[in-house]
Amino acid sequence: MINSLILAAGISLSSHCPAGFEKAESNRCELRTVYQFYDSLQNRGVGGTQTSLPKHVDGYSPQQIDLGRYLFFDPILSANQVQSCASCHQPDKGFSDGHGRSVGFDGKLLPRSAPSLWNSAFLDRFFWDGRAKTLEEQAKGPLYAPEEMNNKPEELLERLNQNKEYQRLFRAAFPGSIAIEESQLLTVLAAFQASLISLNSRYDRYAHGDHKALNSEEIAGMNVFRSFVARCSECHTPPLFTNNQIAVIGTPEPEGMALDIGAEKTFNSSVLKGGFKVPTLRNIEFTAPYMHSGVFPSLREATEFYNKGRGHAVPNGVEMQIHWHIWEPNLKEEELDLIVSFMKTLSDETFKPKTPKQLPSGLPVLADVPAASKESKDSIPQTAMRR
Fold it and tell me: Phi, psi (5° rounding) for residue 276?
């Protein structure tokens, strides 16, 4: 291994806030967006386009955000030093990974896909089953899950504290600190994820008054999307295009895979059997395949699912309380195409962060994860840690 000190030579943390943020007093980065000027309620998804945003987290320092960026791409966080957070949340794939089911530790196939991280600052539920309430709590999941990064808190902290470059960078991010602590690690990972803001799409320009930002087909698609017939915006609520709630919609599992009970386990409620968090549609065209286990390869197929009838894919003998917004809209083929065209106007990677060219650990950036072996595909028990 090349000496990490040589590789890390010259690494320093940014003193500037990321794009879209303004440095306030006490070295705090605060989000700035046109949506902050609106005062209409966010949960009125079928109202006007100029809708306000929900509460969000910000106020991290530029140094904390930048340190989180380095750690996000650094395989030092995994026990085998092969996987990084970015292995499953790749910037060029909408901070997902392009797999229907993500690849975990030692090439094991996980039961669920990697959700996008865009606009995580506005969310108050994380993971597909909504089991985490903060970004810091969410970060613990993949770090310590045996099926994912397979680390242990004490071993991870020992490794970081033995790295002189990370010692120096953590002191820069947390002035006065001596040893790297778990709370600091979770803070910087949360800080970086909270900086991933995507609110400058063509749709947003249209919503702010530039009605030439969308063409006639896309506007028609928006009208179908927001209609009381299709009812897409009832759950995929603008401007985040998620209401961050749990919904039971009855999506099928990949062939041969047992039913994933989803949020039923999180909330100990049979009403939520097969329930999952409503994902954002921001940058949705980059995050195929779709649904919690990637059962639909294309955006068109995922859209068509909602048109095939309430509960049509629920396995025989399984009781599911399908969300009341799911019904039988009987949309025409061309209307489904219009919805897909509209969803693609939600793409915006203006503030996509730069991938580091080198890491404080000296490990390769975005190290390849071994492909899931055939033997491992069905080896994850239903009680295993899931995304």
Answer: -140, 160
CA angle 323–387–267, rounded 5-degree value: 50
Indicate if 245 and 168 belong to the same structural domain. no
For the stretch 265-299, pLDDT in tens is 999 999 999 999 999 999 999 999 999 999 999 99
Beta strands in the chain (DSSP E): 21-24, 28-31, 246-248, 275-277
Indicate which CATH number applies to the domain containing 311: 1.10.760.10
pTM higher than 0.85: yes
Residue at 381 is within a domain: no
Alpha carbon 298 to chain centroid distance? 18
Q: Which residues contact 247 (CB under 8 A, 6 or more apart)?
A: 235, 275, 276, 277, 278, 323, 325, 326
> Which residue, among 76, 169, 96, has the nearest Cα to 362 in the 3D structure?
76
- 56 shares a domain with 139: yes
- pLDDT of res. 40: 74
